[in-house]
Amino acid sequence: MSNDFSQFQEAFFEEAGDHLAIVEEGLLALEQHPDDLDLLNKIFRSAHSIKGTSGMFGFNAVAQFTHKMETLLDLLRNGQKVVTLEIADLLLKSTDCLKTLIDAAKTGSPVDGDTVQRLTVELATASNTKVEASAPPSTPLPLTPNLSRCFHIAWTPPEWLFQRGLDPLQIFKELANLGTLSQVAVDTSKLPELVAMDPEKCYLAWTMKLETVKDRQVVDAVFEFVREDSKLVIEERESLSVKREAPESGRECEAFESGTKTASRETSAVDGAEPKPLGEILVESGIVSRETLDHALAQQKRVGQILIEQHAATPQQVEQALQKQKQQESASQSKKTDTASIRVDTAKIDKLINLVGELVITQSMLSDLGSRFEMSQISVLLERMAQLERNTREIQERVMGIRMLPIGTAFSRFPRLVRDLSAKAGKKIQLVLSGEETELDKTVIESIGDPLIHLVRNSADHGLEPPEERLDNNKPELGTIRLNAFHEGGNICITVEDDGRGLNRDKILAKAVKQGLIAENEKLSDDQIWPLIFKPGFSTAEKVTDVSGRGVGMDVVKRNIEGLGGTVSIKTALGKGTVFTLKLPLTLAIIEGMTVRVGKDTYIVPLLSILESIQPKAEVMKTVIGKGELINVRSTYLPMMRLYDVFCLQPEYTDPTKAILLILETEGERVAVMVDEILGQQQVVIKSMEQNFRKVAGVAGATILGDGTVGFILDVRGLLEMSRQSMLVAA
Amino acid sequence: MAAATLETATKELNQQIGLTTDGSQYLTFQLGEELYGVDILRVQEIKGYTTVTKIPNTPPHIKGVLNLRGTIVPIVELRTKFGMPTIDYTMFTVIVVVVVQDRIMGLVVDSVSDVLNISKKDIQAPPEFGAKVDVSVLTGIGKSGDKLVALLNIDRLLTESEMQEAASVADA
Questions:
Q1: Could you tell me the residue range of the domain that residue A652 belongs to?
Q2: Same domain, yes or no, for A554 and A497?
Q3: pLDDT value at position A565?
Q4: How far apart are CA A456 and CA B32, in angstroms?
Q5: Cα(B53)–Cα(B70) distance, integer angstroms
Q6: Could you give the C-alpha distances from A702 to A173, A196, B69, in angstroms and in order?
Q7: Can you tell me the distance from the alpha carbon of A451 to that of A548, in angstroms, rounded to the nearest whole number?
């Protein structure tokens, strides 16, 4: 029944997040180009937007802090100050602080007041302005009410209150958020006879007591939208002195929605959410004493206990049920904090709107035809039906595509992270990002953030050597961490690569033996050794730094990625570097695919795995041991695989010189796959086979083709393994 | 076992809300001369036969997959599954789309016949044929008038066998 301000607040938090990202990005770039005025202006604009909107929503702490930042930024902008490393660092730290302040406003989590205070001072010193005498920035959360002030508020809202769509309950709710609202009493004396009453007019007035730590301004601000024409008296710590209109009659009535005869109610009831427990009311009205109540409450049993005593359920069952309840509670809580909204590229929306337009046209064409249909027009009908089908399918696919976001959003935080890490570890590190435009599902992007952070930290802290050591080893002083994302074989691969010292086989082995993970004289291959670093508590770092070394990170990486149904693999060379490859299934992803035909069947090959396609001549084909077929492509011999062999299909051609060979690459391996014909290229939405069926070897997923039938997307890696297995069987 | 308890729970619930009196309603369909029934609550929809896409390296009774409004649904040819000879599809050939443990699957049958109310007392336990016929896929034999309906345990019919096949394909 209320028009909740919270929906606007959500938009604010989202926007603030975006602005913060711009500020941070800009500051990082500013370090490199301190004279870039455009950049400064951009940062300033974003900071200013945060200040403006946060002030409007009453997040004063945020607004005040941003104002300090803005002052400094303004000086920089006007050329009165020069961007130095210290200033950039201070601004970055302030951005972090701002982030926590905004988070605090959002979730009510506690704020480290000292940091805020310190940074405020630093910002002020940097901009040479005076700090207001140690006024601690007020935090936007309800604190313990020992510092609280007491306000008596008398409010007679204007008659037009309801006409303008304002809800007094909303005001009470906001007041209750500020502190403890009590003694709320409604004055119904102006309420006319029912016949004379205009339901759109507000005849009520309220008095209340508010205990809060907030300033008067904050309390004032609550009435911001209703102040006009209101009679509002807010008094601090004094007994209430309200100019009440002389009561016309003795009638007393509650707010419109309830007909109870009590003129005053406690706020919690006004909130509409939680009425007081029975016991409390009994105590308040003096029917029972508090001791009696406490005693009675102590005797009260929990439902589970009662059930167990009555042998209706076993303790274990109750325990399980309780666990479940807890899970659901925490699930609903986590849902609350994670606002499920998505920002979509306008181009995507525009396309969707165009498509809907087309759909409407097709629909009107069809209804036009339907109203005067003759059998002779059947071909027209069919044509239009086909068009309708095409439209609908395209819209379906586009809508699915809305969930897709470029992975760049997950990568964007790393420049900052690496900058801080390199400063902390005293190493020179450059970060190279590529494949930021790779699209993947929003949920996947959200969940790979943490694992990636752990991996990048790991690379920076353990992987890369200190500059002296690098120079000693004839490596460039500047270490490189490379983040790359790409689609491969129906998966999304994200690699974190460093050119550091690589994993030390002996060190890991020794540690593993020490921790009792493996026996002393166990012989392990490299591929068996590397995964040991994913074991919880495993770390070969000599000392624990605040960045890493506790042996937690890699465990988290593996668990998170496996939770998403993905895998982590390691490639490393001592002294040269390490590559971590995260492979994630793409449940909803759209990929570019090449449709190929074998006999009557259509398959889709991920475009990214295709290097080239050729029609071979007889002389480039060779066999080994009579069975293994090789093909010479520009003087490299590649194994050849006949798709119809692997999939047991009826091909059109069995002679490779008539067919087409696709040269595919996966994880550095190449293979030539023989198909009958290439049909074309199209974007396909990957559909899960596992949802209703199971994993099919050699197939990464299914998709819906242009004619509405299902096509399979080839899993190049899987095909390779299948062909190897069949080779083994054949050999 | 969980599926079985769920099934009885659903049945009880239906009795409570008056959907069925006693026993259950069954959708019956024809395979050759034989009449089969599946619990109607497990049937999502019935659709005419359309061409399916064959899945490579799957046993013959897995006819292929179908696009059911954007979901990929595997289609099982029930005749092949039961070792009956295949016949040409006619205009009566339909796909019965059923829900099996959160999965959606389609069964190709010769034709659908009727929805029958079979009370519990008219259902007898599946008879024993020894090794010749696997009766574990039946929940029982139902009588409705002079008709005999073999009531299918689709959970067992579709999932367990699927997993076995998956293993055998992987072994090959």
A1: 590-730
A2: yes
A3: 62
A4: 64
A5: 14
A6: 51, 69, 14
A7: 13
Q: Does the domain made of B39-112 have the CATH classification 2.40.50.180?
A: yes
Whether A697 and chain B come into contact, CB under 8 Å, resolves to yes
pLDDT tens digits, A93-126:
888 888 888 888 877 777 777 778 888 888 887 7
Top residue of A647, A694, A726 to mutate, by most chain B CBs within 10 Å, is: A694
pLDDT in tens, A698-714: 888 888 887 888 899 98
Contact residues, chain B, for A708 at CB < 8 Å: 67
Q: In this complex, do A693 and B52 lie within 8 Å of one another by their Cβ atoms?
A: no
Q: Are residues A171 and A244 in the same domain?
A: yes
A positions 647-666 inside 8 Å of B (CB) = 647-649
Q: Cβ contact (<8 Å) for A692 and B74?
A: yes
A701 with A597, same domain?
A: yes
Q: Does some domain include residue A296?
A: no
Contact B101, B3 (CB under 8 A): yes
Q: Is A605 left (phi over 0), alpha (psi -120 to 50) or beta?
A: beta
Same domain, A472 and A434: yes
DSSP string covering A286-336: TSS-HHHHHHHHHH---HHHHHHHTTSS-HHHHHHHHHHHHHHHHHHHHHH
Mutate to test the interface with A, among B44, B63, B67 (most CBs of A within 10 A): B67
Give the CATH number for residue A206: 3.30.70
Residues A427, A546, single domain; the answer is yes
Predicted pLDDT of residue A143: 38
CA distance A400 to chain B (A): 11
Query: What is the value of ipTM here, to two decimals?
Result: 0.76
B50 → chain A, closest CA residue: A709
Of A647, A689, A702, nearest to B57 by CB-CB distance is: A647
Beta bridge partners of A597: A602, A677
Q: Does A292 map to a domain?
A: no
